Amino acid sequence: MSQLLGEFECKIDAKGRMRVPTSVLKQLGGADKSTFVVNRGVEPCLTLYPKKVWDAISARVNKLNPYVEKNRKFIRYFYRGATELKPDASDRILLSKNLLEYAGIEKEAILFAINDRLEIWSKSRYENMLDEEPESFSELGAAVMGQVDMTNLLAAPEEDTKEDNSDE
Fold first, then answer.
1. CATH of residue 18
2. Span 13-54, pLDDT tens digits
């Protein structure tokens, strides 16, 4: 799956339906556009996964040992609210009332492409998050990306790259 790009203002109708922008569907192409899975995001937003991406992440989550308390808690929170969605003939998806309430989404939403998935934010929460932008994006970039070897960025990405998550 390729990198998804874009930030889109969307409307939520009275029934909880949101139209998936045509440019997002074009980026997904083929069969990927026909099914999504949505669940609660890590922050107060929703995460919308193309089904292929959801299946790959689920396979990793399902390998966690459920007898370890942290794993069990993560598994529960990760799957909480997960719902498979198929766009209707008008490219709309139906978001449940519970998920919309969790994310504080009423009538206006921002659909934000991030890597291989999309986040659905309440427009006001999204704008507030942007207002909390770090004082120095340059310093944040150096802290997060400083250890990345930038000399070979055009080479084919490795399948199994390891991430530095030491601060999490």
1. 3.40.1550.20
2. 999 999 999 889 888 885 455 799 999 998 999 999 999 999
**Which range marks the domain in which residue 19 is found?**
7-145
d(CA 38, CA 85) in angstroms, rounded, equals: 7
The half-sphere exposure of 117 on its side-chain side, counting CA atoms within 13 A, is 20
DSSP-assigned states of every residue in 54-98? HHHHHHHHTTS-TTSHHHHHHHHHHHTT-EEE---TTSEEE--HH
CA–CA distance, 119 with 150 (Å, rounded to integer): 27
Question: What's the helix, strand, coil split of the chain in %, to 5?
Answer: 35, 25, 40
> Is residue 152, in this structure, part of any structural domain at all?
no
